[in-house]
């Protein structure tokens, strides 16, 4: 799966930048000690346990208690299916509202020429 598409989907699912990075690193590494996820990714080692536990609570990973804390990623395909069931909004960025335009239309050269022709018509008609 394309990393950019997966990143966009995870951001749509309201994961933080650290959670996204930890999950993608986890997918690349497979089952790994939690500390290694922090070392390989951009998540600070001091926060990696909290980030991975939050991923577990959201259903993106599973932790395994051994002599160290190991983490296993959940498959991204099932997560993508879950996001798709909510709607396809993550595939295209949401539209930004244009504030300040109201019902007015923007000026374009074409609108200027239409306005000029209306003015000429009005002056001829009177």
Automatic annotation (TrEMBL):
- What Pfam family is a match for this entry? TrmB
The Transcription regulator TrmB N-terminal domain extends over: 13-76
The segment annotated Disordered runs over 82-126
**InterPro entries attached here?**
TrmB-like, Tscrpt_reg_TrmB_N, WH-like_DNA-bd_sf, WH_DNA-bd_sf
Taxonomy, superkingdom? Archaea
**Which residue intervals are annotated with compositional bias (Low complexity) in the record?**
91-106
Q: Where is the composition biased (Basic residues)?
A: 116-126
- What protein am I looking at? TrmB family transcriptional regulator
The record lists the lineage as: Archaea, Methanobacteriati, Methanobacteriota, Stenosarchaea group, Halobacteria
């Amino acid at each position: 799966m394309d990393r950019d598409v997966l990143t966009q989907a995870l951001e749509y699912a309201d994961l933080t930048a650290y959670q996204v990075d930890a999950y993608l690193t986890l997918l690349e590494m497979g089952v790994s000690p939690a500390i290694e996820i922090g070392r390989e990714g951009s998540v600070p080692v001091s926060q990696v346990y909290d980030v991975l536990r939050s991923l577990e609570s959201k259903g993106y990973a599973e932790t395994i208690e051994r002599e160290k804390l190991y983490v296993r990623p959940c498959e991204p395909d099932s997560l993508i299916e879950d996001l798709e069931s909510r709607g396809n909004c993550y595939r295209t960025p949401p539209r930004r509202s244009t504030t300040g335009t109201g019902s007015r239309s923007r000026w374009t050269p074409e609108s200027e020429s239409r306005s000029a022709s209306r003015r000429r018509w009005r002056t001829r008609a009177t």
